[in-house]
Amino acid sequence: MDNLPQVRTERIGSTLLITIDRPGARNAVNAAVAAGIAAALDTLEDASELRAAVLTGAASTFSAGMDLKAALAGESPEVPGRGFGGLTQAATTKPLIAAVEGWALGGGFELALGCDLIVAAEDATFGLPEVTRGLVAAGGGAIRLPKRIPYHLAMELLLTGEPISGQRAGELGIANRVVPAGTAVDTAVKLAERLAAGAPLALAAVKRIARAADGVPEPDAFRAQEWETAALASSADVREGMTAFAERRAPRWQGK
Fold it and tell me: Where in the sequence numbering do the catalytic residues fall?
């Protein structure tokens, strides 16, 4: 198994489908998985024809999180500068969508939180059980979850380590879509194609603005936004967007 690719990629239209492929280990993240996800994100960023990515796991399981056996053997599930799984601290410019079936525990949940959108099967299971193992959710869980849902609800999940269903994740606002089991990937790919209707430069700018606004005073956030909008104003895509609207046709984006 260790000699086989542990992360598979497939191009579906303008979407890159990234699949963690360690079903025998419930898609737990070891060094090879982290490197594979990082490489897949490089492919996404470098290919102009790719507009978004969907991250999922093989065999109806998203990821059971960090591979504890590999970690005890000295493997790191992190990529320098990119965080856990090569994703949780990566500064990607294109939209990432997590398609969650089955378990998304610990680092698996954190990989999903590191994406821009989450599609969850209604019977999926999300959880951050790190405290029950003497750890903390250091791959972004303890930082991001209290920003995504009410503080007291986030703290209940972080402090008890108890899991919730995909249905409950949708009720809390963690998941953008809650779908029947077995349909998360298809739904996520369709959502990715919907995002591809937007201008590439504008999508990247939205992501940078959202990151820049995180935890800073509003005046600072608006200053960062002004720089982004000024850069967009002189782009060919802005002119194309206006022209297409006036001509009542679909825009032909160049990413320039």
Answer: 110, 130
